[in-house]
From TrEMBL:
The chain holds residues 244 to 600 of 600 of the full protein. The active site is at residue 352. It is found in: Cytoplasm. Catalyzes the first step in hexosamine metabolism, converting fructose-6P into glucosamine-6P using glutamine as a nitrogen source. This is Glutamine--fructose-6-phosphate aminotransferase [isomerizing]. It comes from Cytobacillus mangrovibacter. The gene is glmS. The keyword Nucleotide-binding does not apply. It catalyses: D-fructose 6-phosphate + L-glutamine = D-glucosamine 6-phosphate + L-glutamate. Its EC number is 2.6.1.16.
Amino acid sequence: EKGTYPHYMLKEIDEQPLVMRKIIQKYQNDQGELTIDQEIIDAMNDADRIYIIAAGTSYHAGLVGKQFIEKMAKIPVEVHISSEFGYNMPLLSEKPLFIFITQSGETADSRAVLVQVKEMGYKSITITNVQGSTLSREADHTLLLHAGPEIAVASTKAYTAQIAVLAILAEVTAKSRGIELDFDLIHELGMIANAMEVLCDEKEEFESIAREFLTVTRNAFFIGRGIDYYVGLEGALKLKEISYIQAEGFAGGELKHGTIALIEEGTPIIAIATQESVNLGIRGNVKEVTARGANPCIISMKGLESEGDTFIIPEVHELLTPLISVLPLQLISYYAALHRDCDVDKPRNLAKSVTVE
Ligand code: F6R
């Protein structure tokens, strides 16, 4: 039930700190360490390459998951859109492991790939919010999101839950391989839950950002570099699906290869800047588009901020920033849709689970 909330989407955005804490609790053992079913960790270690298969928001979570698994556990990862994989299968490695990311566990495009790779004899893990769902039943292993039912069509808490569970999977796998990490994931996730709470308490801020940048515009572009680019893709999907603003996410460096031609007087550009290694680069992009008349909305992180930034998120470990930086984008999308009188929880032409290919 949505209780006092006007929309499920807002309620689900607000639940994210609780979901983070629930995930920490569910994946912790009596010794206070993160733990995952040994069979899953063995499957990770037996693989010479991991293939993440997903659609929509879950695909965007997969792009972040690839960074975790490669940087923490040092196993190569490819991320594929389910619907493309079926007829465009890449040349597989010798010992592939498939990870399906699906909130509903019912997405037909993803299931079609699972059926195909099972026939080929490969192992699979489903990361899902729904115990007993089709993809959970049909895969060899399941990791649950523990996010509670997600009712709004636009996925919010499932995305951050997917990223948290992927981080835990990467951490436990890394430890099993004797790899030392430079941070304590349980501690970081706890800090992230607190930081999420702070952002959820600043809703008026995001309402006014949405009003300033998105009330009348026809389009909006999200830019970022590295992991911020993947969050930009998710921000653009959120905005387009509920506000019907034509929104696209781009890698900052790609702007000059085409997209910059679309910049007009007042075009909103939402830039995400949470990565020290690419901060100069993304700041350069903001200058380029501003010089051409764009209206820049800059979401940066404490420690990397510059004068004129629109919103500064609290500082978190550089790998885990998507868990925080996506919240402003979710809230801005929500308010943009509200200001434009859109049906936030049930956008036109969309269904919560897409059970046809
Ligand atoms: C976006 C959204 C969709 C789903 C996609 C996959 O807000 O909800 O893009 O992420 O249809 O759904 P699942 O994760 O259930 O496989």
